[in-house]
Amino acid sequence: MQGADITLTLLGFGMVVTFMVLIMTKRLSPMVALTLIPILFALIGGFAGPELGTMMLDGIRTLAPTGVMLMFAILYFGIMIDAGLFDPVVRRILRAVGGDPLKVVVGTAILAAIVSLDGDGSTTYMITVASMLPLYKRLRMDALNLTCVTILAGGVMNLTPWGGPLARAASALQVDPSDVFVPMIPSMIVGVAGVIGLAYVLGKRERARLGVVSLQPVGWMPGGMPALSAAATSPQALADAEPTIEDTALLPDADEAEALRRPRLLWVNATLTAALMVGLVLGVLPLPVLFMIGFAIALIVNYPQVELQRQRVAEHAKNVIAVVSVIFAAGIFTGILSGTGMVDAMSKSLLAVIPQAWGPYLAPITAVASLPFTFFISNDAFYFGVLPIVTDAAGAYGIAPVEMARASLIGQPVHLLSPLVPSTYLLVGLAGVEFGDHQRFTIKWAVLICLLMMVTALICASFPLVAG
Questions:
Q1: What average pLDDT does range 415-438 have in this prediction?
Q2: Staple partner for 415: which of 255, 265, 285, 374, CB 3.0–4.6 Å?
Q3: How far apart are CA 131 and CA 93, in angstroms?
Q4: What is residue 233's three-state secondary structure?
């Protein structure tokens, strides 16, 4: 590697590591860190003036549609929560789980896996959190369990042909998406089973901490508190359990929740939401436009008075700003990471550390390397920049491009924890948890699920352990 590449590599990894340390230790908020840390490292690297400004604007322009979509999506689902669209879902889940935290976490994993079939992480997070967060609040459960199993289920189910990672891998290597996908189905099944098993473990911990809670299946209790049965609750559970969900982008204030409900408009709201989801899947209009239209209709239908509309928008605006501001700040981070050439240098350096003697093992090496690769750099940079180079090298040992494409998908559950993934900020914002806390809580489980999927793929010969 040349001296310039080494410098850019050190700056790139230093920038990402510094960012992670600062947010995990809560020295800086994600928005401030995403804005200032990349600028500081760019200046250290000698990038300044108009050139630096152009990089940042390019990154912001790239993420602008995502920011607009998330803004109106949060407003839309906020209105739907206010109007009580998900109350029947919550009531049915309450009957099924019976106030048992174990069943709530397992139910979260199953719901997230089903919703993730649409291939869009943002939609998965909004629907899952909107449906399950009221239960977590009423049971006084730790919302990190919600974000953990939701993002892991989404990471596994995102390997469908219409999901972003597989489409990128197939395009980059010019292979048929179905040839990549079908042999990966056993790994996906085992991955989902692993997430459900993890949900069982996490739920069992919550049950031991809180006990089984007796809940009223309809409406909100005064002050948002659950109805507890002393006979069914572990001793000191209420005294020891601290509320883990505070300000979120979805839950209305308990005192005004009943006045905002629109039970007579339940089917109207359900039809509107279903139409919005169908339009999303079919790609009738760009996502930002769909949610803008959906939000405008939902606001008029549920709250026709202009003053009430202003109140609802103002109520959710603080949460919108908290999420969307981080998205635009991430644009500065990704813009500088790409524009300075740090991404390319980081990719080359990681490839350079693989000894030539490891050539026959390039498929499993790629699978393992996809965890840090897709964490530190974007999916686009990995699949269009790194994967073709590694695949060319693997071809000399008889490893087919389609096998390399499958191997490259293993790290997706870890990828979603990257600070470069905008939808993850949406998930933690909706659930009311800190990004650093979510990463610290989830990362070990994400690595475990990835390894479980890789072992399954090797057993099913989705890609070879050693080139034949």
A1: 87
A2: 374
A3: 9
A4: strand
Backbone angles phi, psi at 215, to 5 degrees: -115, 150
Question: Is the distance from CB of 279 to CB of 273 less than 8 angstroms?
Answer: no
Instruction: Enumerate helices (H) and strands (E) in the chain, giving the number of each.
Output: 23, 0
Cβ(320)–Cβ(59) below 8 Å: no
Q: Work out whether the CA dihedral 317, 319, 323, 325 comes out positive or negative.
A: positive
Average pLDDT over residues 408-417: 92
pTM beyond 0.85: the answer is: no
Adjacent-strand bridge partners of 211: 233
Instruction: Give the per-residue pLDDT at 242.
Output: 42
Q: Quote the pLDDT of residue 216.
A: 52
Whether 278 shows a pLDDT value over 50: the answer reads yes
Alpha-carbon distances of 388 from 278, 351, 383, 394, rounded to whole Å = 34, 12, 7, 10
d(CA 222, CA 73): 28
Burial string for 13-36 (b: 16+ CB within 10 Å, else e) reads: bebbebbbebbeeeebbbbebbbe
Taking the C-alpha atoms of residue 82 and residue 117, their distance in angstroms, rounded to an integer, is 26
Element (H, E) at 62: helix 49-83
**pLDDT at residue 297, as a whole number:** 94
The position carrying tokens 């990349």 is 38
Reduced to 3 states (helix: H, G, I; strand: E, B; else coil), residue 211 is strand
